[in-house]
Amino acid sequence: MIPATFKYQRAHSVDDAIAALAKDPGAKLLQGGHSLLPLMKLRLARPGLVVDIGQLAELRTIDVKADSVFIGAAVRYHEIADHAPLAQVMPVLKKTVSVIADPQVRHRGTIGGSAAHADPTSDLAAVFLAADARFMVRGPGGERVIRAADWYVAPLITALASDEVLLGIEFARPSPDHQTYLKFAHPASGYALAGVAALVSYDATLHVTKAQIAVTGAGVLPFRAKPAENFLTGERLTRESAEQAAQLGADAGEYEGDVQYPAEYRKNLARVMIRRALESLA
Amino acid sequence: MSQMVLGSRVLRKEDVRLVAGQGQYTDDIRLPGMLYAAILRSPHAHARIKQVNIKAAQDMPGVVKIYTGADLQGKLQSIPTAWIPPESDLKMVAHPALASDKVRYVGDGVAMVVAHSRSQAEDALEAISVEYEPLPAVHDQLDAMKDGAVQLHDDAAHNVALHWKVGTETDEAFRTADVVVRQTFRQQRLIPNPMEPRAAVAQFNSATGDMTVWATSQNPHIHRFLMSVVLGIPEHKLRLVAQDVGGGFGSKIACYPDEVLVAYAARDLGVPVKWTETRAEHFTITTHGRDHVDEVELAGTRDGRVLAIRVKAYANLGAYLSTAGPGVPTILFGLIVNGAYDIPQASTEVYGVFTNTTPVDAYRGAGRPEATFLIERIMDRYAQEIGMDPVQVRRVNLLKKEQFPFTNAFGITYDSGDYHRALDRALEMLDYAALRREQASLKAQGKYIGIGFSTYVEMCGLGPSQVAGAVGFQGGLWESATVRLHPSGKATVLTGASPHGQGEETTFAQIVAQRLGLPVEDIDIVHGDTDRVSMGWGTYGSRSTAVGGGALAQASDRILAKARTIAAHMLEVPEDAVRFEEGKFHPEGNATKSVSIQDVTLQAHLGWNLPAGLEPGMEASAFYDPTNFTYPFGTHVAVVSVDPDTGEVRLVRYIAVDDCGTVINPMIVEGQVHGGIVQGVGQALYEGALYDDAGQLLTGSFLDYAMPKARFFPTIEIDRTETPSPHNPLGVKGVGETGTIASTPAVVNAVMDALSSFGVTDLAMPLTPPKVWAAIQNAQSMKGGQS
Ligand SMILES: Cc1cc2nc3c(=O)[nH]c(=O)nc-3n(C[C@H](O)[C@H](O)[C@H](O)COP(=O)(O)OP(=O)(O)OC[C@H]3O[C@@H](n4cnc5c(N)ncnc54)[C@H](O)[C@@H]3O)c2cc1C
């Protein structure tokens, strides 16, 4: 519980941070510290240099534009929950961050930290995937955009290069009319054993015009439940169609069990939670 | 006013300092020149140590000294056990503070670094290289007893640490009974996790030879006694301080290697040394609880009368014998497996087994939750077997009011009670008939709820000392108290009990306040310091108020007797004509002329005008040894819902009707009941240590080990009956453990009631969502297969 020796540096700008990363490939960026510091205390991570970018104003903006929404990487969960215009246009974000851990964690943890840490049970991963988030990053060679579908490479590994900084996350507007995030929490950690983000639009007769569904926690990686979306589109949203979609959606995941939660249980949970998320939107 | 003190909701005096961060926990101790220790722990569950190389580590920055097991050989006695159950053939195996030849569980200490800072000590640990020769490991007690299993200790064949039998003949009953129900239960291993991890600080004065150890202890005098033996420091030169302790639940009873090592280093180096456990260490080195396999048999009639119960228990004791380890699954378990029922024949046989796991010791309830679980579960299985309502089976067998004092088949005598009344009250709160109807109608909609009962009794308030001796506890179980009134009339009260979260600084003040007519705020309770309190046996087994409170009452009564003599002298009336009310003495029939206890105390200290021959001063001590255990009882009812889609169990309602005898502070009693229930439900639904075949703990952090959380619980519905215990002057019975003892089987019975629709009759705890879901899936696929 005592980290190995490290140096701490507060970056003055994103470019300053990029320069620090370039100089020391072992360096780690720090925002809320709620994933990095626990790992350092267990000595599972032992960076020689920690570069703090959590206070940088350029990473802390929320911008609700006509055709998109931008959230800076260092924006904290509670700031997302408290941002009224954001809740208006993308209610699923508030729903999701409100079920992450406890108030203490929500006052330190950041959207970008969660994205960059890429814990396969993180709640926001489901939203990023379901909502086709775009990850804006900058490195020594300039800026680029990484699509959510390409972001999660492996547990705790993203498409971000080690000398790049995540600037923020962008969502296209308008996003579907009906949105929810439903979580079955691990009784020990409180992380998602299965978390489902569902964004659905339907017409007056409940016929689905658009469905975007993703699952976090249950699988080896967070995944998009495309077969469920394809099935639902054009269907009426009912208990039966939700169940069928859920079955197809759960099939899209890849599962691995642990000593307490076997693979088949995780898959079942993905199915049940997809169905319940969809039912809650009807 | 003072008449109302006992039984009123006085706010906890200790909370002011604890909530304000002004408590003094062991880790808060900072002494000039203090060094920090860190302990290198075995990553293997079982291995021979070939070589320990400390060279590189010695050169690390800040390192003062490194000790290995070899360095300490012959310098320290073995870490002792303090409970030797009679006729159990207990194998008192050696437990060195640091291993030198073999490590026997993951976490076993191998070396200790002392450095100028904690991080330097931790850094140096990484530079020590140990060459191990891994050996096969065994973590399960049944596997450990098998032929050919790897042996942990040379002198414990089949890894059997103890074998103990108690009870009556039962064969006849089992041969002739209408019904015999058999069931094997696993009561899984739990990890205590008090909020404050363990810690120790030691300081040695080489000129005087005085050693002071601050440590997280539930029983400083026992700690001092054991450490004095291990370290070879006489008790009058050893001071143990445990001022504020952030919970223990049994895990801070034991004398561990860690505090011994710290004291050793402080003496060796001549500077203070501190060690603080990390949470990760806590999971692997601080004693665990439970871990039983129990084969239970019940013989009964078709109409619901239990004739006999027979239990064979296999208790996992871990790698070494912890301080109270051998006593928990024997004495504290085997003598009460008949529970609250009138069962004429009963026997218990226990094997205590060594395995390559963390040592097991007392955990809230210690033995009695295990006993209560198996009797309450087997009663439900029996009810099912004969097609009787679980409440009815209990009614038939519960002891009746007229039967007290009642001596059970094991020879222990239950003090007092009205078990049926507690059951009736719980049923009334529940509205049982209506709930059964609701259950049926929900089931028709594919929704499953279950109702579970636990009509428990437990034995606590440990002593008396004679019994302690008879059952092999290597100590006394009386308690001491000193009441000291200062000239101003304020009181300092010393107790040998050692509260660590239970609130006794408040309840003890209430006891003294009530007896002496003093305001509660004028009374300070001092505990947890062997230099201030002459002797005591500490806090565990719900004994503090029953025994420590008894001592307080006696000491207070002695004060009062002396004060009355002085008051009579001051009032110039004969002593038997003096009345004492609300802190004032006055002549019989004349309330206008009076002297207060404060006036009397001042006179006692001044000594200007005392009755002839009376000593000045106002202080009294008492050493109180009770005549028996106390037996709290009650009925707990759990109502659960089971989600068949996810297997998730939710507690919908929880009703607790407890009888802990006289209630001193209802708020504190309710707090104890709440916390106890939550811990018991933790075992039923969430908690459980898991090891892999190599003996690695798989649930070594809060990410994997599920502690119960507030959000898992409905409002707990509490009521109580009050049957004073005839065994102590206060009539109290103890309430520190009842919740934990009662709740586990209530919840499991409720889940099994819900699952009875699927034909599931038993599942091993914890009843986690995947386990419940799989059981339902199995049941359904079997049904599908049949049709
Ligand atoms: C008790 C507890 C409970 C939790 N429960 C949950 C839960 O229920 N659900 C959930 O989803 N999460 C949970 N978390 C994790 C929490 O959400 C973390 O805050 C989050 O995962 C990381 O955000 P952070 O700002 O703290 O990141 P940090 O810890 O500061 O950083 C995390 C990682 O991201 C990197 N990084 C940070 N910022 C950038 C950037 N701009 N560009 C590139 N790399 C960057 C860091 O180098 C580091 O590797 C919990 C955490 C704790 C401590």
From TrEMBL, chain A:
Q: Which keywords does this Swiss-Prot/TrEMBL entry list?
A: FAD, Flavoprotein, Oxidoreductase
Q: What SMART domains does this protein's entry cite? A: CO_deh_flav_C
Keyword Flavoprotein among record annotations: yes
Q: Does the keyword Isomerase apply?
A: no
User: Molecular function (GO) terms listed?
Assistant: FAD binding; oxidoreductase activity
Question: Where do the FAD-binding PCMH-type domain residues begin and end?
Answer: 1-176
Q: Which InterPro entries match?
A: CO_DH_flav_C (IPR005107), CO_DH_flav_C_dom_sf (IPR036683), Diverse_Substr_Oxidored (IPR051312), FAD-bd_PCMH (IPR016166), FAD-bd_PCMH-like_sf (IPR036318), FAD-bd_PCMH_sub1 (IPR016167), FAD-bd_PCMH_sub2 (IPR016169), Mopterin_DH_FAD-bd (IPR002346)
Q: Which PANTHER family match?
A: XANTHINE DEHYDROGENASE SUBUNIT C-RELATED
Q: What name does UniProt use for this protein?
A: Xanthine dehydrogenase family protein subunit M
* Organism from which the protein derives: Sulfobacillus acidophilus
